[in-house]
Every structure is written in C-alpha cells, then in structure tokens.
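Page 37, continued from 36.
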C-alpha cells in the first residue's frame, strides 16, 4: 500500500510579546491580580491572536521590577505594561531602554515621563488643569489653591498655574502648607492673602475631614463663598456632603459611561468589581499590545482612543492625556455628573 507523501504543516507564526509587570506578591498582590485580570480583558478585546502577554511578578519592589523586566525581555517581550510605582518604573525602564521597548507605567508621577516611558495614571497636574479650565468656563477669574506642601501639592499647583496662564487669568493665589499644619488655619491664611476681592474658585488638595475643615474656614473667611474644586480623590468620598460649603463643589473623575461599561465586562469575566486602578492596567495593556504590532514598536501617539475610564491620548512627552469628566458633590453623597469627559487633543481641552 502506497502511503501518501507527508505534508509539512505550516509553522505557527511567532507571536509578539508584551511583558506585564505586576505586584503579584507582597502587600499589593490583590491589586496586582485585578490588574492582570484587566490586562487579560484588554487582550481579549483586541482580538489579536498574534499578541501574547507575559505576566511577571515584581514583588512590589524596584529590584523585583528590574529583574522581572529583564526576564520578560529574555523571553521575547518588546513592550511593557506596568509596573505600579515610580521606583519600579525607573528600574524597569532602565532594562527596557536597552532594547528600545516602550514602558506604559501605571504610576501617576510624571517625573519618569519621556525617553520611552509613558505615565498612564492621572497626574495631579492634569487634574488641576481640568479644574482650572472648568472654573474659568463657569465664569471664575480669581482662582486660589490650598494644598499640602508635598510632591502632590506642588504638582497640583504647577498645573493650576499653567492652565490659568494659558487661559489669560490672573495668577492664582496659592498656599502650600506643611502636612501637619492645622488646615483650617492655613485656609484662613489663604483667605487673608486673597484680600478684599476674595476668590471666585478655590482648588483644595485635600480629602475627607481636612477638605471639609478647609472649605468651612474659607467660606467663613472670604467676602463671598467661592466655588470649591477638588481632585479625583473625592470620587469615592461620600463624607464631603456633610459640609454645606462643599455642596455643589466640582471635581474630576473617570467618564461614567466608559467606566460602567468596563466594570460590567470585568464583572462578567471575573465575577467581581474591579478596583479603581484596574482601568489603568486595561488601557496600558491595550496600548502595549498595539505597540508590538506597529512597525516602529511604539504605541500610537496623538490618536485618541476610548479607554476603560474614558478618552485617552498618548503624547510625545510621555504622558497619557485623559479626558476627565466633571462631577459635583451632591447632598446624597454620591457624585453628580456635570459634564462628560472631553476628548483629549480637541479644541478647548
């Protein structure tokens, strides 16, 4: 009996690999697992069988992140989603730059932005710029800011000043105070600095009881109550409505429709609600997957896309510009939508 000639099966094409740098052990392991889930959801949504993810544990340390990045590179990773913190990002980026691999880091600290690193978290400066623009659009001209004198507060102030200047507004009255300072006393000092003209809007770099104390003191100390502005930290804070001065205060947050869609799909896949930062991992993983399929190996720049938390655009400076929705503090304690998220890069944003 004559056997038919053997037929060589075509070799399976090599897949493009993305390293996922996650804290799968240590104190942030639960967050790391949720971020891994979100990344897997992003890969499913990409529907690209030519991309493979390589999850690697950083252990939540800079040394672990560097080691995890090098191990992933040895296995063929040519782009990275993660790691979580600034120190881990510096270590991973050092390894990634050796092969020209982009790093889409989950941190919100912009000090590592650029030179192949994109900061995927919502930065303090970005939040401040959004709030300055919203206040100006609402008719405010005299702006003030009260925040702790730490890295967060300083970046908040820098973004607030920059946007006020770009909008042609007077320089904001800024007071950065030591963290241990009585915040009500600092608020009274800001009111005194504002003078008899007062302030139309004040951005508070505080949350919870300190935000309530600052708002009450400023409302009492200024000639007329200002429009209070907050940060994304306010999104989960239902206690703010306990202070009458904060009712109607504005703060930025994820686009509710995009976030609800992401949470619904995540719940359907994993049977639990994702933590807030899981959306950052989804976006980073989706963009890293696109990067390894691009001829130059870089993520798409200047092209808005709809992410887990709303519109997002990667710029050439290493930042993820996010469209932030505008919310108000409602008497119920739940956020009330004022304005949906704009698309980054569009006129007026």
């Amino acid at each position: 009996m004559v056997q038919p000639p053997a037929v060589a099966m075509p070799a399976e094409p090599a897949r493009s690999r993305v390293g996922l740098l996650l804290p799968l052990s240590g104190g942030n392991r639960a967050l790391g697992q949720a971020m891994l889930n979100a990344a897997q959801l992003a890969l499913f949504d990409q529907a690209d069988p030519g991309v493979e993810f390589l999850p690697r544990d950083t252990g939540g340390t800079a040394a672990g992140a560097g080691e995890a990045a090098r191990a992933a590179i040895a296995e063929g990773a040519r782009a990275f989603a993660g790691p979580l913190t600034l120190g881990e990002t510096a270590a991973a980026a050092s390894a990634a730059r050796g092969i020209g691999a982009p790093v889409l880091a989950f941190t919100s600290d912009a000090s590592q932005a650029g030179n192949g690193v994109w900061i995927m978290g919502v930065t303090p400066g970005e939040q401040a710029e959004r709030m300055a623009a919203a206040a100006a659009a609402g008719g405010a001209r005299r702006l003030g800011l009260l925040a702790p004198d730490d890295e967060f507060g300083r970046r908040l102030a820098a973004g607030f000043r920059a946007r006020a200047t770009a909008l042609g507004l007077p320089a904001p009255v800024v007071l950065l105070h030591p963290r241990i300072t009585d915040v009500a006393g600092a608020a009274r000092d800001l009111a005194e600095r504002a003078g008899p003209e007062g302030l139309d809007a004040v951005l508070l770099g505080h949350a919870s009881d300190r935000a309530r104390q600052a708002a009450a003191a400023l409302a009492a100390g200024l000639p007329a109550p200002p429009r209070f502005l907050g940060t994304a930290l306010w999104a989960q804070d239902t206690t703010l409505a306990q202070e009458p001065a904060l009712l109607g205060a504005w703060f930025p947050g994820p686009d509710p429709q995009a976030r609800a869609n992401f949470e619904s799909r995540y719940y359907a896949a994993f049977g639990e609600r994702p933590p807030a930062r899981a959306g950052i991992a989804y976006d980073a993983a989706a963009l890293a997957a696109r990067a390894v399929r691009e001829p130059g190996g870089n993520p798409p720049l200047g092209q808005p896309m709809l992410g887990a938390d709303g519109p997002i655009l990667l710029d050439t400076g290493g930042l993820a510009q996010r469209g932030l929705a505008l919310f108000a503090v409602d008497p119920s304690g739940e956020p009330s939508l004022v304005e949906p998220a704009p698309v980054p890069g569009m006129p007026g944003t």
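The mean pLDDT is 94. Flag for discussion at group meeting. The domain at 124-253+326-339 is CATH 3.40.50.2300 (Rossmann fold).
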